[in-house]
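Task 17 of the worksheet. Students: predict the tertiary structure of the chain below and write it out as structure tokens. Keep your answer in the requested format; marks are given for formatting as well as content.
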Amino acid sequence: MIIPKLHYISQGNSPKELLENIQKACASGAELVQLRFKNVSEKKLLKLAKEARDITSHFQTRLIINDNYKIAKEVKADGVHLGPTDACPTIARKHLYTWQIIGGTANTLQECETLIAKEVDYISLGPFRFSTTKDHLPTVLGLSGYTAIIEALKTETPLIGVGGITTEDVTDILETGISGIAVSGAITRDFNSIKIFSQLLSASSTEEQRHTFK
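Model answer:
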């Protein structure tokens, strides 16, 4: 499975608001939505995941469930995204369907290497800049952090930039070798920005193709 270049990480203060935002993102052309809703019971998360699956299926948008691989399997989501304190990707892999993807979160070169050894399908590398979405933020990486990690890694595993990214950052981020981005705040504030993000991301892939065919 090719990992889409733009991931929308869902936001909302209530399940209703979250689902409305997922619907808006899908209607605006999002290729992949990550369902992220913290501090909720497994039962409520399952209900939310089923509703999100209905919305994303209607738009043929891919759905990734944050943290919970059991729910990802139950609703037949396209995959699961595991943070550093979540289940180990190797364990999740044993439970998931073969076609489901696993993403992991990393902040350092070592964390990336560990995730690659555990055969994740993509790595969210961040934070790119300070973001209010998460508490206890690890070191902000910025462009120089991305460049250093990518040069040392030399991996085929797609690296997705995450953390306070706006449309102004996309071109510079892609020049570091990052293959895509995950966005929460900037998209939730303006769902029309999905089109701009997508254009900037696809412009980079046509550039890559041009270089390849020279």
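Marker's comment: The chain has a mean pLDDT of 94. The first strand starts at residue 6 and ends at 9.
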